[in-house]
Amino acid sequence: MQLFRFLFPTFAALLLSTLSGQARAEVVATFYSHDFGDHFPHAFITLKGKVDGTGEAVDTNFGFTAVSVSPAILMGSVKGMIETKDAKYVSKSNPHFSLRLSDAEYRKLLDHVERWRSMPGKSYSLNKRNCVHFVMEAAALLGLSVNRKSQFFKKPKSFVLEMMKINPTLRL
Question: Considering only CA atoms, which of 135, 134, 154, 39 is closest in space to residue 95?
Answer without folding.
Answer: 135
